[in-house]
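Quick start: what a row looks like.
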Amino acid sequence: MAVARVTEIIASSKKSFEDAVEKGVERASKTLKNVEGAWVQDQSVTVRDGKISEYRVNLKVTFILKD
């Protein structure tokens, strides 16, 4: 029987929400072993001079704990 843990991370991108998610999962996978999935809990943007300057996502990342 596997035991999983969920951790929360925030990732950002100047390009898109999708790019922020990809960057977040990629970065989490460098530190956490056995990443099995992730879901977007929240999305937000920062605005400068009336334009979107950054896309941010709050991710919940699931990884399997080893024995």
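That is the whole record. The radius of gyration is 14 Å. The first strand starts at residue 3 and ends at 13.
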